[in-house]
Design brief:
CATH architecture of the largest domain: 2-Layer Sandwich
Number of strands: 9
Radius of gyration: 59 Å
Strand order of the largest sheet: 6-7-5-9-8
Length: 337
């Protein structure tokens, strides 16, 4: 006897199986996405139920696929599986980043850091007591040690009154006697150089102490000759005589030039002038003079013009000698005025 199965009943039964399979697949997806609440270090091994295996097999038969998992999620699931199977081992530490050493014992350079107390700040610990300044008296500057201190022994009325060679020799002898008489327990006077030039006894002291000794000694020399009034001044404080430059339209001797200037210009005291330099060419010469202040004032009143021979000549101050002075006229080209 054959049993007749209605197609309607078969269709209803298949629909029921498909629904069950779909519900099982949804449960498996929920289980895969669910994050485990606790990590069990040594879980007991367990086996999947036959129902779950049947559901997974059914999913593959109907073409359903589970949701794609990320790499981190896959590694976490692998870890959970191995932990259930008892084959999980702790991962080794990263060799590139080893655990840091005790920072209290060593720093980044390997040296041991110095502990400091809570009562003091690092800035206070780094501060060191300042060394006291030296109480030794400095003997002079570097410039003094290199070039010395240039002094000038002159007459009190310099530049109107000049020293001569004989007077300078007398001063030098007295100074040497004072050096020999200096006590041994006192600092000795020390000099670098001395010379006589243009009515001045120049002497260079090695240090400030010698400068003081020289000024004190010269003031105590007294009247070495009749009218001797000596003084010591720093070279930069020495009264300077005016210096002028003039071009003469002939090649006469310097003494002849001074005599003629004196005769034609009585206000010029050429006997007190000194020749600093002389340059002679074929038909003319250029002279530089150091003159007395009164003669300089007289030249300034005449606009630095003076009578010479049959004409006039023009003086220039030494600082204005970049251009050669030109004669207002020459003795051979001009008539007397």
């Amino acid at each position: 006897m054959r049993t007749f199965i209605s197609p309607i009943l078969v269709g209803l039964k298949m629909d029921t199986n498909v629904k069950d399979l779909k519900q099982g697949a949804s449960k498996i997806a929920d289980l895969l996405q669910r994050k485990p609440q606790e990590e069990v270090l040594q879980p007991k091994p367990s086996t999947a139920s036959s129902d779950e295996e049947k559901l997974a097999a059914g999913i593959s038969t109907i073409g359903l696929q589970a949701k794609r998992l990320s790499g981190a999620r896959k590694r976490r699931l692998i870890k959970e599986r191995k932990m259930r199977e008892g084959t999980w081992t702790e991962e080794k530490p990263d060799r590139k980043n080893p655990p840091s050493q005790d920072k209290g014992k060593a720093g980044s350079s390997g040296g041991v850091k110095r502990p400091h107390s809570d009562s003091s700040t690092p800035s206070q610990e780094k501060q060191q007591p300042k060394k006291p300044r030296s109480t030794q008296v400095q003997t002079g500057t570097y410039k003094e040690a290199a070039v010395g201190i240039k002094m000038a022994i002159v007459h009190r009325l310099h530049p109107d009154i000049h020293l001569d060679q004989a007077q300078t020799d007398m001063i030098q002898e007295r100074l040497l006697n004072a050096v020999d008489a200096n006590p041994l327990e006192e600092a000795p006077p020390q000099f670098l150089y001395s010379k006589f030039a243009q009515g001045v006894f120049w002497i260079t002291c090695a240090n400030e102490h010698t400068k003081t000794w020289l000024m004190r000694t010269v003031s105590g020399l007294g009247e070495l000759w009749e009218g001797a009034e000596l003084t010591v001044v720093d070279s930069k404080d020495l009264p300077k005589r005016p210096r002028v430059l003039v071009r003469i339209p002939d090649i006469s001797e310097a003494n002849t030039v001074l005599t003629r200037l004196r005769k034609q210009n009585p206000e010029l005291h050429t006997s007190e002038w000194s020749v600093m330099s002389r340059k002679v060419t074929e038909k003319e010469q250029t002279l530089a003079f150091s003159i007395d202040p009164d003669s300089f004032k007289a030249l300034a009143k005449t606009n630095f013009k003076a009578f010479w021979g049959l004409g006039r000549i023009i003086f220039r101050t030494l600082k204005e000698t970049k251009k050669q002075p030109e004669d207002e006229s020459s003795s051979s080209k001009s008539a007397p005025q």
